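Tutorial handout. Part one gives the primary structure; part two gives the three-dimensional structure as tokens.
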Amino acid sequence: MVELTIDKKTVSVKEGTTILEAARRVDVFIPTLCAYEELNHTPGACRVCLVEVDRARSLVASCVYPVAQGMRVRTNTQRVRRARRAVVEFLLSDHPQDCNVCVKSGSCELQAIAELVGVRDVRVDRTDFSTHRIDDSSPALVRDTSKCINCLRCVAVCAEVQGVSLLTPEGRGFDSKVVPAMAADLADSACTYCGQCAVVCPTGAIVERDDTEKVWAALEDPKKHVVVQEAPAIRVQLGEEFGMEPGSLVTGKMIAALRRLGFDRVFDTNFSADLTIMEEGHELLKRVKEGGVLPMTTSCSPGWIKFIEHFYPQLLPNVSTCKSPQQMFGALAKTYYAEFAGIDPKDIFVVSIMPCTAKKYEASRPEMRDSGYRDVDVVLTTRELGRMIRQAGIDFVSLPDETFDAPMGRYTGAATIFGATGGVMEAALRTVYAVVTGEPMPDLNIQPVRGLEGVKEATLEVGELGEVKVAVAHGLANARKLMDQVADGTADYHFIEIMACPGGCVGGGGQPLPVTDEKRAKRAEALYRDDCEVQEFRQSHENPAIKQLYEKFLKEPLGHKSHELLHTHYTQRGV
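Part two.
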């Protein structure tokens, strides 16, 4: 341990701690644009965090400068304030002046820090942005290099947390920018579209593709019957867009807001999450009993699917053939619901509200047209829905609680926990146990698969199957650890759940910003509360609407119609 003073406050920290970390211990705020608490790698690139250290020849970057015994640090001298303003001025001189129309306006960290350090003028000649290009090749994300401040957060999260290492800095000085490998477009790269780069980006350099105008156009079209589905995680995230506490369960208000936006029917992805468990659980049982490829891995996360297509294509037979709940819903909306409501499927327009930018890509995949049409027409993130609600002048916080429409709005607690890492696994095991033994699991709360540990394991005794060993990973770097074991034959699991984003869907690339582990934990806690305290049923096979679906339409899990509409295949891709 070493002892130092920061602005006359004494603090003791471990040797090797940075000044920035030590300052946070004593509630001394030092502004920064490149340091991000949840990333281990801090490049020290932005230089906004400059401070004075006694006997140092120059100001030092506090995010990378280690503490020392007896060190005295000052963070608010005239010299420091002038230096920070100068640094921010240089950043602004190389940044477009389009704050009023930028999607990150109001949540832009550069904008906030410019105000914080007192920049009132930019005394440096501004860059000509005529040569900059916007990469909008991807259906999920848009890159604008003119807004990149070279903080390298996206580089760190892509390498550290996701294990993809797609992004890299290129060029020097004012010509420097962050690009995919070999300066390829996102659509021509191994990008998984998870959107974690957009989560950590302090400006509008990487954002989700905005599809709100497509939805407004459909809502205005009298020939369209517009239905909407919402992922489980939305109901514990959307409130944050309107100043509510993280983890606020706003299911009823969310439904009310969607009705006021003009959707003809408000359904729920949780309905098809229960359906996914029925199909995926029976697929697992079939593989175990008949000697199929094991371990079976989940297929709900499109970022994970694209990752395995690029980096572990030899393991594609391990992936469940089930579509994700989003895509199952879309296929049924244009078949089962169309038949139920007596509507021509060509007139049904399906909108998904997702916490995930990769869902935009998933909906555009050519395999996702088994209904005879594109199964899901438009995917919006939580942030996009928040913008639409504000544009419509809806007072979200004051809305009354309303309920979902039939027949695709009923769900169980097993479906709602899909939004947290380990939730799909827990939901599947509840139903698999009941199918095998004929009775419910003694304790439906499978604690070993919960929480934010990177890789979790559990072993359960499941009737005649004996011991069933499972694993859960969230974040693609953790997925890589499990896939390496599967590839070399050392994995002895039966079933593996993988979510591309840290924390699962509660940490998705399209949720309200900023994101921290504390917020992820609160959102997950709210989903488990919905499961235990709110829902009448807690096992997917108990859902009356799912029973009706099989009785009147699908007939049986893994049956002919189920395979036709609810299952798919995946594609080997280059790295």
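Part three, for discussion. The chain has a mean pLDDT of 96. Residues 269-290 form the longest helix (22 residues).
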